[in-house]
Amino acid sequence: MKRLLHLLILAACCSGTAGARGLVESKVACTQDWIYQSEVFFNIMLTAGEQPATGVVELRVETDKGAAVCAMSQSYSIAAGAPEAVQFRLSGLPAGFYRATLFDDSETSEAWNFGVRPDEVLSPRDAQADFWPFWQRTLDELAAVAPEYRLERDRARSGRLRDVYTVEMRSWGGETIRGYWVVPKGRGQWPAIVCYMGYGAEPYCPEADARGDVAEFVLSHRGQGLNKPTNSYGDWIRHNLGSRDAYYYRGAFMDAVRAIDFVASRPQTDPRNIFVEGGSQGGALTLVAASLDSRVAAAAPFVPFLSDFPDYFEIVEWPKAPVMEEAARRGIDRDSLYRMLSYFDVKNFVEHIRCPVLMGFGLQDDVCPPHTNFAGYNNIRTAKRWEVFPRSGHHVEREEGWWRARSEFFDEHTTR
């Protein structure tokens, strides 16, 4: 299907005569979602002010890794107060994500990301031969740890519709982890949503009276959130880098499963309707939890982290910089580093997901870029769909449209 992108460049006139640049302000108006299935079109509307304007507009396109794709330009000559349309066309672009930059007489005017057939972005699994035995052994070790759930009602946060509890439990390696359990009052069983938090995020507790028909558990996994006062890991992504057995995310992934253990153990939980969600690091934990635990009824990650490390580190500076710095400090060579990280790469887990998945992503995200989101998504073999937020960067949680889509998705997959 052809999708047409209209770019509206709003311009004012600077003082001068014909031949002066004339354009001093620009604004890109997105009338599509900037995701294309075939030929890409960019329509540019140029507007002069009180004086005539002449000049050149140039469009340069690069891959999301910074490799030049093409550059094209067009001249304009606009009468005072008159608009002029300029169109750029691109065809034959391989599936992937790109950066377009518009220049007006060599000065950067606007820049934006766009995608071409994202469902065809290929990032083959690079899991080691013992990937699944390693994780099954880790799950067995988790199962051997008695959770010792401890709940304390938070009177200040509890409300008319739901009670709030602070929860403590033991996870893999005997680590104590915590979270907020928000559950409807009265008798009955309810759908339950497990929420996984972003990297270093502050503890979040759902509002008790936001709704009375669902239970929610917000996990603070080891060393983060409610566990920060006892954090012994330092910068989590660096912790025991190089050791698949002791790396931070081995335990953190097990914390995600233990959170489902807790929710499933509650008499108020409808075991048919356990859902998982989260953004960024929480998006990674969402996909891993759905991969490792068949009790999940549906999963809604957004801007998932920790996916496709080799390509990821060609696109971003963080977390590449601290990981490479730590690898150099420990004397870990490139091949060994990526071999170890492959045990924690989301794209290597998701083939085991058996529940429906809704993924949200921000097209302008420079922390967990769309390329890495689709590296995992395209390896999912079950029912799935995505929601794009074309102007959003990493903070898709600020988009009301995401929460509406997520709620409708969970409702759609609730067994009644």
Q: Any overview of this molecule?
A:
This protein is an alpha/beta fold and 416 residues long. The protein has 2 domains: 3-119, Immunoglobulin-like (Sandwich); 131-412, Rossmann fold (3-Layer(aba) Sandwich), CATH 3.40.50. It has 8 helices and 17 strands. It has helices spanning 131-143, 248-265, 281-292, 309-315, 320-330, 334-341, 370-377, 400-412; strands at residues 3-8, 35-36, 40-47, 53-63, 68-78, 83-90, 96-104, 107-116, 150-153, 162-170, 176-184, 190-196, 215-220, 269-279, 296-302, 357-362, 384-389. The strands form 3 sheets. It has a 9-stranded mixed beta sheet, with helices on both faces. Strands 2-8-7-4-5 form a 5-stranded mixed beta sheet, with no helix packed on it. Strands 1-3-6 form a 3-stranded mixed beta sheet, with no helix packed on it. Strand 9 (150-153) and strand 10 (162-170) form a beta hairpin. Helix 2 crosses helix 3. The protein starts with a strand and ends with a helix. The relative contact order is 0.11.
Write the layout of secondary structure elements.
Layout: E1 3-8, E2 35-36, E3 40-47, E4 53-63, E5 68-78, E6 83-90, E7 96-104, E8 107-116, H1 131-143, E9 150-153, E10 162-170, E11 176-184, E12 190-196, E13 215-220, H2 248-265, E14 269-279, H3 281-292, E15 296-302, H4 309-315, H5 320-330, H6 334-341, E16 357-362, H7 370-377, E17 384-389, H8 400-412
Parallel strand pairs: 1-3, 2-8, 12-13, 12-14, 14-15, 15-16, 16-17
Antiparallel strand pairs: 3-6, 4-5, 4-7, 7-8, 9-10, 10-11, 11-13
Helix pairs in contact: 2-3
